[in-house]
Predict the structure.
Amino acid sequence: MNLASLDLNLLVALDALVGEAHVGRAARKVGLSQPAMSHALARLRDLMADPLLVRTGSRMELTPRAQMLRAPLAHALDSVRGLFVSERFDPATARRRFVLMMPDLVADLLMPPLLARLGATAPGVRLDLVPFRGPAAITDAFARGLDLILACLPDAFAGFHRQRIYSDTDMLAVRRGHPARARLHQLAAFLEARHVAVACDGAREDMIDAWLRRRGVVRRIALTVPSYLQALRMAARTDLVAFVPGRLVAALSGPFGLAAVPPPLDPGRDKQFMFYPTRAQVDPASVWLRNHVLAAAKELDKERDKELDRPRTGATSGVTRGPRRRAAGAAIPPQSVPI
């Protein structure tokens, strides 16, 4: 049978006929007139080469073929209806595995509050973090296996939608006993210091150095490392200065024994984005996870506000105040656009 020539409404009529074994009642069940149902029965008899419903005395009875159709017909109609019903996602019982890709600095900031949220509402959900790859290294097959990408590359991932989740400002990170700590907000002291640079994902230099060079400033690079966490560890154990995202310094200043100093030149705000596959735009599980990521990012803003408002004194201070105070990272309304 050519399905393209089949009127699927006939299946609804057939389901009513085999359920009611009566043309009039079947017509009322599906909202048809009795003549229309009789016409549908005639077409079904022709298609199936079986009378389906026959008169026996004063009543109608199903043929053996019609009786055999009851269960498979109900199953088929339920399957068709399921095509048009959104899949449900119950986090409390889900055993879903999500694959996420993000740089280490984003993972270090977002994972603790995100895991706390998911652990309370979705104990069976698992998150797998994969090593971050630049856009040029992402194949179609690899991209199909990703549920979310978090990165500060707003136009980098084709086939994904993007949504801004938070912004950040850069700070200088030094160990608390650094001899030039109180002067590093001045350009002269900044230029005298030795720095640790961060060149991620195979880059030839730290992005901040390209920005500084355009302004006629070249800092003294003593060491280049591939991640911000390594830069912070080096700054904590040496007199090197790390020019890194301020949120990361705030989060790790206690465990690493670091102080944050405003730089003499302000490079503005870095924007972090969440990317999700276009195919999953309305998928309930993806929507659920994205909402939790956004909520975790808002918690970062609250924690940063507390950090900036907390009184600090002497050597216990994690932040050295320069001639100006940086504003706390403000919550940003989500903006989702296709790329």
